[in-house]
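Deliverable D4.2, example record:
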Amino acid sequence: MLYIVSCKKNTEDIIGPPPPPPPPPVGIVDNDPLLLGNPTNAQTSVSLPENYLRNYDYYKIAYSQSRAIPVWVAWHLQSEDLGSSPRRDDFRTDAGLPAGWYQVQDYSYSGSGFDRGHNCPSADRTTSIPANSSTFLMTNMIPQSPRLNQGPWAGLEDYTRTLVGSTKEAYIFMGNYGQGGYNTNNLFFATIDAGRITVPANIWKVIVLLPKGTNDLTRIDTSAIVLAVNMPNDNRLYSTGGNAVWRNYITTISNLELQAGNNAVMLDLFKEVAVNVKSYLKLKVYQ
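Output generated by the structure prediction step:
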């Protein structure tokens, strides 16, 4: 008599357990703004003038020489970053840019009808005078419609600090894309400062929130809180009503990447997060 012995195995036995999250990039540690990944593979190289990496210790940026504004700015936020240091208001040029690059001055936005809109906010760096002062470099600024900057955008910044509180930490990215916005007089401008500074069409932010701890990259899973917004740089929209509320501009990271992908530099967030987690988080909608 012939006996047949089944060799069938569970799918888990055949495929094995899911792969572990990738290790942090070399030289990147907890609380580093780029722990979750460098969204455009920016490098500190003059051969990449539209994607030039700058490290200001308190935040990191990818800078565009031709636009004279950041591509994105990344920073980490927790209660230890919040103190009693006063706002410095010492807007100034970044003399550390490569030789021959145009340096935006503290007065370059004067008369434009646009605010000098912070990327990394002054209020996110109040533990010391150097920390706060670092946020007033003009390479941390974009021409931002006043009602946007002082309305829903400021509201989102305040809300983020409330979210972090004393028990959580956040990895934050802010960026922009497109060209052309409406200033305080509701007039359209593609550039300011005699054409040297691009006015972006849209401004976005992505926040990843998790409980305070160590080994952050390995702790980021599908339960992580993700908040993404995408707002038009249009002063006409934010005077009253729902348009003045940041929640009405919530989006997904996948949609944001698709919209921002029209720029010369492609945007790809969370490169260092485990693939299955990254895919889930990019479709997550903040509630």
